[in-house]
UniProtKB/TrEMBL annotation:
Transmembrane segments: none annotated. The modification N6-(pyridoxal phosphate)lysine is found at K260. Coiled coil: none annotated. It comes from Allosaccharopolyspora coralli. Pfam families: Pyridoxal_deC (PF00282). The lineage of its organism: Bacteria, Bacillati, Actinomycetota, Actinomycetes, Pseudonocardiales. This is Aminotransferase class V-fold PLP-dependent enzyme. Its cofactor is pyridoxal 5'-phosphate.
């Protein structure tokens, strides 16, 4: 960090510099601090790579400098968002009437979906949250799986639903909501507004909550179902993984990322809602200088006002891959994850902890936390590839995520070789 600060820093110069020299300086100063997440060999977190057409479209978005807040500011951005809304709902198997907000990522998309949910379940209970806020509102419960993503807690906090609003539903060995516990929690709350927050694509195991059962149960009690599907929602784009998200179309709102499995450059996420009126009511704004044309105003569907025209890069990714290309990309990542798991499992010192249903692999070395962490550190230090660790059910594991279209057979060999080398040299 110090070297980077030195290279980039110093006092702000009084005089400006030649633009070309500035860019050359920036490239040179930043280079040692760049992380190569998009060249096929990065398996940490859940990091998508970048499709060439999508990258070029993102450059256009910058060069055109379009503000996607209002139709009047960029009819092209508004139309592209509308086209992507339709394409994505079709591809992911969501109702074709969903509304969509194009935002920074699943974090904000979770805020949007849960804000629409808060609006609707409180309205159903006779409370106008947009006028009254939460002071004096009926108590609201959010039923959410024990293995939810941390961004759900933050989204709820932003929405004034503190951690005491959360009712944690136990998860099974794969990390999925146990529906018998959900049924009990719903039955115990028939008189209060309830939001059920499910997940497709557990950030450790890749497991997907049983959406059909969850939606049936929740809707029987009048609850709203929000789905965090940052990467798992893309299982719906392939015939071979679609069964994992069976029933997801019956939910009320969904959050996903384009910068993960769709391989769009950072940042890009999408919120979908089956109830456009609730979505809009939770997000819209009005101002005297805003002449509404009836055409799509992007700011009605996200918490941002001025906003980057992210849909161009989404459009280019979808257009360059087509339906079959997206399915192939999902299938290839899953096959590569299975291959990594098989190769590692063949070593007597390595144990695979999860059922590799999607693109996530959890591996443990020698049944030992320290040894597992040591292997991750050795792989990171060696530098041919990168993966991290996680702690699940009190046990440390290597966490390997395959989310980059650029990952090929050779890259799969590189990561398994690096792990196995570290397993045997660090011992
Ligand atoms: C990555 C992820 C998020 C957060 O997404 P961002 O793109 O970082 O905003 C939320 N939920 C799940 C399941 C994720 O994998």
């Amino acid at each position: 960090m110090t070297e980077l600060l030195d290279a980039l820093g110093g006092p702000l110069p009084h005089e400006g510099s030649d633009p070309l020299a500035v860019i050359e300086d920036l490239a040179q100063a930043a280079e040692p601090g760049l992380v190569r997440t998009n060249a096929g060999r990065y398996f940490g977190f859940v990091e998508g790579g970048v499709l060439p057409a999508s990258l070029a479209a993102d450059w256009l978005a910058s060069a055109w400098d379009q503000n996607a807040a209002y139709f009047a500011l960029s009819p092209a951005a508004a139309a592209t968002e509308e086209v992507c809304r339709g394409w994505l709902s079709d591809l992911l198997g969501l109702p074709d009437t969903v509304s969509a907000g194009f935002t920074t990522g699943a974090q904000t998309a979770n805020v949007i979906g849960l804000a629409a949910a808060r609006h609707r379940v409180l309205a159903d209970a006779g409370w106008d949250v947009d006028a009254e806020g939460l002071f004096g509102a009926p108590r609201l419960s959010v039923l959410v799986g024990a293995e939810r993503h941390a961004t759900i807690d933050r989204a709820l906090r932003f929405l004034g639903l503190g951690s005491n609003s959360i009712v944690e539903i136990p998860a099974d060995e794969h990390g999925r909501i146990r529906t018998e516990h959900l049924a009990d929690a719903l039955a115990a709350r028939t008189t209060e507004p309830v939001i059920v927050c499910a997940q497709v694509g557990n950030v450790n195991t890749g497991a997907c909550d049983p959406m059909q059962v969850i939606c049936d149960l929740a809707h029987r009690y009048g609850a709203w179902v929000h789905v965090d599907g940052a990467f798992g929602l893309w299982a719906g784009a392939s015939a071979s993984t679609r069964h994992l998200v069976d029933g997801v179309a019956a939910a009320d709102s969904w959050a996903t990322d384009a910068h993960k499995w769709l391989n769009v450059p950072y940042d890009s996420g999408i919120a979908f809602c089956a109830h456009p009126e609730s979505h809009r009511a939770a997000m819209t704004l009005s101002a005297s200088y805003l002449a509404r044309t009836g055409d799509r105003d992007g700011a009605d569907w996200t918490p941002e006002s001025s906003r980057r025209a992210r849909a161009f890069a989404v459009w280019a990714a979808l257009r360059s891959l087509g339906r079959s290309g997206v399915a192939d990309m999902v299938d290839t990542s899953c096959a590569q994850a299975r291959r990594i798991a098989r190769t590692l499992a063949a070593d007597e010192d390595v144990e695979i902890l999860n059922d590799v249903v999607l693109n996530q692999v959890l591996a443990r070395v020698g049944g030992d936390d320290d040894r597992t962490r040591g292997v991750a550190a050795a792989v990171q230090a060696e530098g041919s590839t990168w993966l991290g660790t996680t702690v699940r059910n009190g046990v440390t594991a290597l966490r390997i995520s395959v989310s980059d279209h650029a990952t090929n057979d050779e890259d799969v060999r590189v990561v398994t070789d690096a792990v196995l080398r570290a397993v045997h040299s660090a011992h």
